[in-house]
Specification:
This protein is of the alpha/beta class and 285 residues long. It is built from 10 helices and 6 strands.
């Protein structure tokens, strides 16, 4: 829980956004131990995670991350972020939290249906892969995500914006399907009604369901099944680091999206105004 000491330490640098004891208790088992040999680890991992979530939330530059004692030095935070990305730590945390939230809602651990969609965003001068999206009339990248019926992130792929949605679906399904073996149905809009998407779903043993706009609809309207993934894309807009794609590498962009969703799920799992934490035996099982 928050104490006066915590608030005095964090101060103006994200007061109220640091991890609580209960939230860190959920994340801590997934943090890999220090490598054997050499100096022992001196970095406060909890402050490091606070620094990462602060960066994604506020959109500050790496070099503008508040210095110690608020957070570890920015090269340390960046180095750990890359190391955990390489070791699959972020993906492991995301997947585990999705399972916890689904079982907490009385659902099966693996979803049977998913919704997919893309979001085109501009890039900065950092470089890296990018392309021209003729439909949205912007140069940048696409965030290709898959979510379950609750809007929880199942997988993400970031690629150049000139790649069609249907052509980017195979890579997304390669990442999602091995993690969720019970997945059977994929809901998508009419842009996915292409041979590449149909073939990718067939090879993965999935049924592609195209949700079309109602013919009589003139203005914006909620589309069945599709609104869930569109809402999840809207959630990402709350994180200022994701207002554009500021990263040079698509892998870092994917990590930033995953971190944002991890923080959102932590808020649902352990927040004073929400239900109690899962029983500790769940984590040991």
């Amino acid at each position: 829980m928050w104490t006066s000491v915590d608030r005095a330490l964090v101060g103006d640098f994200g007061s109220g956004q640091a991890l609580t004891d209960d939230q860190f208790r959920l994340v801590e088992p997934f943090i890999p131990p220090a490598k054997p040999g050499g100096r022992p680890r001196t970095t406060d991992v909890r402050r490091l995670l606070d620094g990462l979530f602060y960066l994604v939330r506020t959109g500050c530059q790496w070099r503008h991350l508040p210095p110690p004692p608020v957070f570890p030095p920015w090269p340390t935070v960046y180095g750990y972020m890359r190391a955990f990305l390489r070791d699959g730590v972020w993906e492991s945390i995301r997947h585990h939290f999705v399972v916890m939230l689904r079982e907490g809602a009385g659902r099966e651990p693996s979803p049977t249906a998913a919704a997919v969609d893309t979001q085109s965003v501009r890039t900065s001068e950092s470089g890296g892969p990018r392309g021209w999206d003729a439909a949205k009339r912007l140069k940048g990248r696409k965030r290709h995500i898959a979510v379950d019926t609750q809007g929880l992130l199942l997988g993400v792929v970031v690629h150049a914006a000139d790649i069609q949605d249907a052509d980017g679906l195979p890579e997304l399904l390669k990442r999602v399907k091995p993690l969720y073996n019970w997945l059977r149905i994929v809901f998508a809009d009419s842009i996915y009604n292409r041979l590449a998407a149909l073939l990718a779903c067939f090879l993965a043993g999935l049924m592609l369901v195209i949700v079309r706009r109602i013919a009589s609809t003139i203005s914006l309207a909620v589309q069945p099944r599709r609104w869930v993934v569109e809402r999840s894309l809207g959630w990402l807009g709350r994180w200022r680091r994701l207002s554009k794609d500021y990263e040079a590498l698509p892998q870092i962009s994917e990590a930033m999206i995953t971190l944002a969703m991890i923080r959102l799920m932590l808020h649902r799992l352990a927040h004073p105004s929400r239900r109690r934490l899962p029983h500790p035996d769940f984590q040991n099982g």
